[in-house]
């Protein structure tokens, strides 16, 4: 049975968190950062598989998502200002809570989609608090959509306000992601080839909502920042990183964007990066028709880390209380 608790975020917002525990003492903890317009409870199937292999799993609902939406506000709004950096620090605060609950146990940080971009920034600021990172359905230095979206989002903020919702931004992103899969059965065919999983997403009242203009601005700004030389030079080049993506994921530009990310990691001397592209798979690999293969591959990667020198060293390092400022 899933457990849950809340903890205090950066600004005091209570953040809902799900916990799945193995029957044995965990050999590691997997901390999950979910994607945009969804929530942490959707990772239960993945968590149960990880539990079977001795991993505890924690997944918080990001601010403005799931059960972490302040009363009286619409879903999808991180904050009026600086919401992205607050969300990254929220993840760090959960990491510290995990450290108190599981002293000395290494943490593998997993981010999906928007969560993968949060993880990319996290690695530069709080990388000494994790043993490894996995980026699912991610992207690298922004392509044309990111550059155009950044400009349009600011125009839309002037027109609608930061907490407004822009049909134009939705058309450019979520609706645009669906175009390669015409004729469309639903607005979310781009998520998975498994129609039952797409229908489950649509039926979930905590999924599929429009995000605020301020959240889109935060995201587009972050895309350019997290792959800059200034930020990447702060990341531990020996940190184990695993990139997994569907070859037909529009968020990763059908693998092109993920390949750009791999290229900048190589350019900056990252020594422990692995990747896998799943042919024909779309955005949500954990809800795809080949999800068993995806989860088995992740477990194999994570299990290899248990014998990795960096992970063994993490077990001996007390997690520091960081006072670092967010990456700029």
Lateral arrangement of strands in the main beta sheet? 1-2-4-3-5-6-7-8
Helix % is 25-40%
Main sheet summary: 8 strands, mixed
Shape: globular
Number of domains: 1
Terminal CA distance reads 40 Å
| CATH H-tier superfamily | Alpha/Beta hydrolase fold, catalytic domain
The overall average pLDDT, rounded, is 92
Query: How many DSSP helices?
Result: 12
Proportion of residues in β-strands: 5-15%
Identify the CATH architecture: 3-Layer(aba) Sandwich
State the oligomer: single chain
Count every beta strand, where a strand is a DSSP E run of 2 or more residues: 8
Along the chain, the helix and strand elements come as EEEHEHEHEHHHHHHEHEHH
Output the CATH topology.
Answer: Rossmann fold
Helix- and strand-based class? alpha/beta
Poorly predicted sequence stretches spanning 5 or more consecutive residues:
309-328
Compute the CA-based radius of gyration.
Answer: 18 Å
CATH class: Alpha Beta
How would you describe this protein?
This protein has 328 residues and is of the alpha/beta class. It has one domain (3-143, 223-314): 3-Layer(aba) Sandwich (Rossmann fold). 39% of the residues lie in helices and 15% in strands. It has 12 helices and 8 strands. Strands 1-2-4-3-5-6-7-8 form an 8-stranded mixed β-sheet, with helices on both faces. Strand 5 (107-112), helix 3 (114-126) and strand 6 form a beta-alpha-beta unit. The longest helix has 19 residues, at 83-101. The chain starts with a strand and ends in a 14-residue tail after the last helix. The relative contact order is 0.15.
